[in-house]
Fold this protein.
Amino acid sequence: QSVFYDSFTGNTVTNEEVKGHIKRNSTFWCVNEVLPCNPLEGRRVDGSCNNLKYPNRGAPHTPMLRLLPPEYDKDFEPRRSKNGDPLPLPRKLRTSLLQEGSVPDTEITQLLLHFFVFMVSDVMSVHDTVNYIQWRPYCCQEKGKTDNVCIPITITDDDPVHRFSSIRCMNLTRPESFQSRGCLRNNTSPERITTATSVFDLSHVYGNNMQVLNAKARLFEKGLLKFEVSGGKIWPPSVNTTKHLCFLNQLPKETRCHDIPEQGANSVLGVNLYLIWTWRLHNRVATELSKLNPCWDDDRIFFQTRDIVIAIIMQIFYYELMPAMMGYENLLRDGVLSPYKGFRDLYDENIIPQVSLEFPFALRWAHTFQEGNLKMYNTNGTFLKETKVVNLTLRTGYLDENIEYITHGAFRQPSAKFDYTVDPDIAETVLGPHQLASDVFSSDLTKNRYFGFPPYVKYRKYCSGKSHRNFGDLMDVIDPERITLLKERYKDVEDIDLMAGMWLEELVPGGRCPYTFYCLVVEQMIRSMVSDRHWYERPNRPNAFTIEQLLEIRKSSSAQMMCSVGDKVTHIQPQAFYMAGPGNEMRSCDEIEKINLWAWKDASCKPKNPLNCFNYNV
Ligand code: HEM
């Protein structure tokens, strides 16, 4: 018998209240239906029962955590400057604080960015972007003036780019909230609503709901996900209609659009690539497991494989990507990474599985080192061609002919440099042909205000304990020239927006990210481990890995994943998030450490190749 929970409060709701939601058409957003929790059950697809005391926490549409209380003006409009004036215009701030240019990094590859954005989409949903691309494309037109959801970005006559054009506005909409979806009254402080589960569980691959997973993704044979073979490659299932999310497919040639539990994976290129690779990884692991343990049924192979794939991706995220961004020693010091390969158990049932509102917001800072030109290489490493990455959003069809070249470019092309310069395409046309003009940095800054984040200096205090009473106090994290830039735009140090502060901060010693980014992201990384009962490093979770299995998971690497499921990858550098070079030379995939699934051998099953345990490598 299911129990119904109020998605925001987490309290149970009566059948009468559920009927009220049905009448108002708000059940999907405002009510979580949860089957009774079984403490011995593995990770649920819909994230429920992760915390046995609060069964709906972790499920979709549950509230995000605010690290600091919101600050709004009246009617929950953006806060004002200390002197009562409106804050400076976002686009004006962006164009004066961040310059446009293309400087390649010397160390980090594009592959890191692809993986990073893939991880973001595990805990976020695309509806806030689809809202202004598809549902309300009119915020800059007459109609937009009467739609309260519209919050278009003003472009002034002296704009460095648009003074040469007639464009004076960029489309944007407010973030969806429990209020906009009818779950909370409009006179309460806006609380962001998302459709993803709030733990890292690859819900953008497997979906947020068992019924959808079963209908769209499972083959119900040998633990496999449904797949297609085309051009000699394995793909997730696709849909044969033009009415899908891949608006930019150039018909009739480009028709592919994934028909998977979460359509959002068809969006930004990096999400799409890793969705394909993770999909293939699932099927690779499932195939090997079913050979290894022929007596296992489809269900057992499927859920064991899902658990392994989630662990592999988490291992790469925590132990390979994040150290490159934040510094390995820093993460060890702050208890995010374990120095040992064995188990660790940090679980605390009093910490609810939640994503902070600040976490995905801070990750937007990564837009500053996104490269705009996508370079493609053939399998021998010869440069073939390039295209604008912004023209590939919502255009899965482009991958059909090009995924191989994009793959080989991803670990050969550097990211943009971490240097206060932003790519012109990301800064002016981030939505490609979807919008006349779109500047993701101005959107980031605008959203900053509609999320109601308090001033940047309050986050400095949260992170360092130190009060910053005047601009000079910022010298510990921002260099003097950039403090001058801030002073020219903001009248008071307390006016500075969180994102504007992060843009101009210096990078943490030993890492490649600003101080406040580091602090907000570490908070989430710890929260995600401590609050997730099914965290892969735990020995005391239902169906936990054995120590032998965990040691195999520890061998995961982005290079190994590329060798296993990338397109025709036979040679790669072992640290694929770093450019190849001395100490990280490209080498044959045979020399890259692999995961041996023999550790999952069930003694009660007779494997097909009993003599050679290396037949089960992925
Ligand atoms: C091809 C490259 C990319 C493009 C075209 C792109 C584009 C966008 C766009 C249009 C938005 C929505 C902005 C808004 O309406 O508020 C967005 C949001 C976001 N992007 Fe990117 N992005 C790219 C790469 C990345 C990367 C590498 C990261 C790495 C972390 C990233 C992280 C985020 C985050 C965290 C958000 C906010 C999501 C949310 O809160 O809903 N993006 N991006």
About this structure: The first strand starts at residue 3 and ends at 6.
